[in-house]
Design brief:
- The chain has 286 residues and is α+β, with helices and mostly antiparallel strands.
- It contains eight helices and 15 strands.
- The chain has helices at residues 18-21, 29-36, 50-62, 72-77, 202-216, 235-238, 255-264, 273-285, and strands at 5-9, 43-47, 67-71, 82-83, 86-89, 93-97, 102-106, 111-117, 120-122, 126-128, 151-154, 161-165, 168-175, 178-185, 220-227.
- It has a five-stranded mixed β-sheet with strand order 4-14-13-8-15, with helices on both faces. The protein has a three-stranded antiparallel β-sheet with strand order 2-1-3, sandwiched between helices.
- The longest helix has 15 residues, at 202-216.
Length: 286
Amino acid sequence: MEEFTLLVSDPPHNEPDFAAAAPNFGLTAAEVRMKANYPIPEIWLADTEAQKIDSSIESLRATGLSVTAVASDALAAIPDQTVVKSFAFSDSGLTMTLDESDVELPFDEVIVAVFCQPREAVGEESYRSVGSPLTSGLSARVSLAGLPGPSKRLSMAGLQETTARSPYLDIYASHDGKVIRYAVVQDESDFAGLGELQLARAVDNMVMFVAELGDCFKNAVVDRRLMDMQPRSRAMVTQRTAHTGVRKGFSFATSALSQLLESIDPDMKDMTQFELASRLAYLTKR
């Protein structure tokens, strides 16, 4: 295992000067614009010498790009999802039932919640978003969700497809210096704990839970950048199209990214795009 300092994009960006930023990547201004337009955190640069990344961060921030440094061991230390079977809101906190135990998070707990609601994949090169209005009567605070359908879960290199990825909310907290992580998953968790707020459709209950959690936890950061997330397949790397262009560096679905992750921790080599994006979203917001 090697120790790297990662330069991670933290969109949205602030009217970047792409021409000024381009030399940091060895890319053209147009190629940097394409990278910056991707609304989800991703690894842009990596080096075993932290000072080089620190210098790049200073330079890129001066051009209007929002970036941050992440230690590779912090990325590797994040645990896998622990799926919440059911939950209940009380006057003081959120109780979550796991496989073998119950856990309570007090409402004054400092948490980062990452909401992932993937697009539906269609074929290997094109994607579509399936949207439908929320059930009538839902408050405006949850009406911004696109409510896309299920998507294919793709490995980081795009070499394989696994099971469908259901929308989920990753809830991150820190206890005794260690990251803890619980996931409320649309197709796996019981939403009866919403009580009178529970709706007929699972997709609406998922959105309602995210809104309710944001209202109850006053010290919560709710990150919605993974809403409408579009997974990338290997075909989008090997075939240039007007929609995708050519992917550079450590972008999703590149072999360079898979090699970097394997160098950090061999168990991370085939990490899915959704998994990596959730971890990076947390690490940019903690």
